[in-house]
Design a protein that fits this description.
The structure holds 2 protein chains of 2 kinds. Chain A is mostly helical. Helices cover 39% and strands 9% of the residues of chain A. Chain B has 15 helices and 16 strands. In chain B, the strands form 4 sheets. An 8-stranded mixed sheet of chain B has the order 6-7-10-1-11-12-13-14. Chain B has a 3-stranded antiparallel sheet with strand order 5-4-15, with no helix packed on it. The chains are: A mainly alpha, B alpha+beta.
Chain lengths: 95, 477
């Protein structure tokens, strides 16, 4: 299966990747290879097999509902490019 | 052309845990920005989510509350989209294997009928943070305290056919999550939010019309309003020859309109896949049965009990069980006063009115259930009339003590002594010969005047039934 250029551009947009025309071409080929692999696996008869959600056959451990985190805002915000009044500041998002 | 409306609701109920769904941060409301956001909530590299058992327990509780099967195995999935208040770049949610499967709940219709609304599923997910768009010199401020707060998303079938039904359903779920003590139901603080999927189609058509999704409606009144406006908008478009576009719309209560949220247009490709950071959740029968054993009496069962035990109407029972605290209050007043109907009238009438006026919740009522029950006993045994009871009620509300003390102190005891009432009547008849003449010439309505005079003379304390009876006898002459 081969992906169209438009499909690759859409996937790049969803992933917020800026690709130039050469890259779009290259990804269209490598992504198509991945789809071929998926198609190969799709061809396997999996009747009666429970779909796998995780490679390890164990189940989720649960945590007691206890507050264990303390306020480390100052430390985290020392990493941020801009903060004000305890908020992280980012380029304006227009709704 | 006649149109038919189809509505489905997605309700987000914030679960009343102590900590977040995947981290040990507190979810307490109103903290300083970003003081409740740790490494997991900030999605710093290398962190791993660990599921909160209480969130799972609460989801199971909800499943039991809507008679839905609880999945023995459910899976968390990543819902991918970019937004600055979602640092992970994806929301951890559930997709094809939700924790709660198909259930249902009954709503009471305006005409007294009952409609069963299907609940497609309920799943666990994490909330996002908050974006603040004002006051930062062209920048947007991000507060991640809410990021990772546990939510239960409750998805209904498109079973509702008008805004009133949608509100009735939303109220039912609102009551249920509070009975179950899994959500505080606080709409102002956003603990209980609702999105509505709305479409219209020509009456009789089988296929659904194109739907619009109305986002984040945070009051019962707005849900009704937003749906009605959206339905009219869609009908107008179609009748003018246009087509409805599938999109997300925002209700603006100030302008009383819904409007398109264009920014989300191309984001509707969430590319769900199982979250590799989380393993499948397995829930044992023992786990479920232990939760079942802790379930309180649920609204529907309580409503039936109020109808059979207290002889209430369907409507009264519905209103009185709409909130757990209200139902508990009424239950106690009815039991202690042994006057179920009178208790219902007082709780739904004067008490609810006074609480509304003072903007108080039933839990903060200045009059306790016991105090109200004691007062109702005095109405029932004719110590006071219903009219005087309003003054007694007011005095208890003002903290002047209990009914018996107030009746004694203010001398409000009803006059049932026939002689005393007759004395007053005789005097009034003697002083108002004209009115007596009118009554005797057939103007029965004038009786009200005499009743008023007697009540005034007795300062409201004469027994109204007795006054009426004695007046009629004496006026006949």
């Amino acid at each position: 299966m081969s992906l169209t250029i438009e499909e690759v551009k859409k996937i790049a947009l969803l992933a917020r990747l800026a690709l130039n025309d050469d890259e779009v071409q290259a990804y269209s080929e490598s992504l198509s290879d991945i789809f071929d692999l998926a198609a190969q696996m799709n061809a396997v008869d999996t009747t009666g097999i429970e779909p796998m959600a995780h490679p390890q056959d164990i189940s989720q451990r649960l945590r007691e509902d206890i507050v264990t985190a303390s306020d480390e805002r100052e430390k985290f915000q020392s990493l941020a490019p801009a903060t004000e009044a305890g908020l992280y500041l980012i380029p304006r998002v227009i709704e | 052309m006649e149109w038919e409306t189809v509505i489905g609701l997605e309700i987000h109920a914030q679960l009343m845990t102590q900590s977040k769904i995947f981290s040990g941060s507190s979810i307490a409301y109103g903290a300083e920005p970003n003081t409740q956001a740790n490494v997991v909530d900030l999605a710093l590299p290398g962190v791993l989510p660990v599921l909160n058992v209480e969130a799972v327990r609460m989801a199971v509780k909800f499943g039991l509350g809507i008679n839905a099967p609880v999945s023995q195995r459910s899976v968390f999935a990543r819902k991918n989209y970019f937004y600055p208040d979602l640092p992970q770049g994806y929301q951890i949610s559930q997709f094809d294997l939700p924790i709660v499967e198909k259930g249902h709940i009954d709503i009471l219709l305006d005409d007294g009928g009952v409609k069963c609304i299907g609940i497609t599923r309920a799943h666990l997910e994490q909330d996002a943070g908050k974006s603040l768009h004002e006051d930062f010199a062209g920048m947007t401020g991000i507060d991640l305290n809410r990021a990772g707060t546990p939510l239960l998303e409750i998805v209904s079938e498109p079973d509702m056919s008008n805004a009133k039904e949608a509100v009735a359903y939303m109220k039912k779920i609102h009551a249920l999550v509070q009975y179950l003590e899994i959500c505080d139901g606080n709409l102002q603080e956003g603990s209980f939010r609702c999105d509505a999927n709305v479409s219209v189609r020509p009456k009789g058509q089988k296929e659904l019309g194109t739907r619009a999704e109305l986002k984040n409606i945070n009051s019962f009144r707005f849900v009704e309003r937003a749906i009605n406006i959206e339905v009219q908008r869609q009908i107008d478009i179609i009748e003018e020859g246009g087509t409805v576009v599938q999109e997300t719309r925002l209700f603006d209560p100030d302008k009383d309109e819904t409007r398109s949220m264009r920014s989300k247009e191309e984001a509707n490709d969430y590319r769900y896949f199982p979250d590799p950071d989380l393993l499948p959740v397995r829930i044992s029968d023992d786990f479920i049965e232990a939760i079942r054993a802790t379930l309180p009496e649920l609204p529907e069962a309580k409503k039936q009990r109020f109808i059979t035990r207290y002889g209430l109407s369907d409507y009264d029972a519905e209103v009185l069980t709409s909130h757990r605290a209200l139902s508990d209050y009424y239950d106690q007043v009815a039991r202690e006063s042994n006057q179920a109907k009178l208790a219902a009238n007082w709780v739904m009438g004067n008490l609810s009115g006074a609480l509304n006026k003072a903007n108080l919740e039933i839990k903060a009522s200045p009059i306790s259930a016991k105090q109200l029950a004691d007062m109702i006993k005095r109405i029932a045994d004719n110590t006071i009339s219903g009219k005087i009871a309003k003054d007694v009620f007011e005095a208890i509300w003002q903290g002047e003590g209990d009914a018996d003390g107030i009746i004694e102190k203010k001398g409000l005891k009803q006059i049932t002594d026939t002689g005393a009432i007759e004395g007053m009547i005789d005097e009034i008849i003697a002083n108002n010969p004209q009115q007596v003449e009118m009554f005797r010439s057939g103007k029965e309505k004038i009786l009200g005047f005499f009743v008023g005079q007697v009540m005034k003379a007795s300062r409201g304390k004469a027994n109204p039934a007795q006054v009426n009876q004695l007046l009629r006898e004496k006026l006949k002459g």
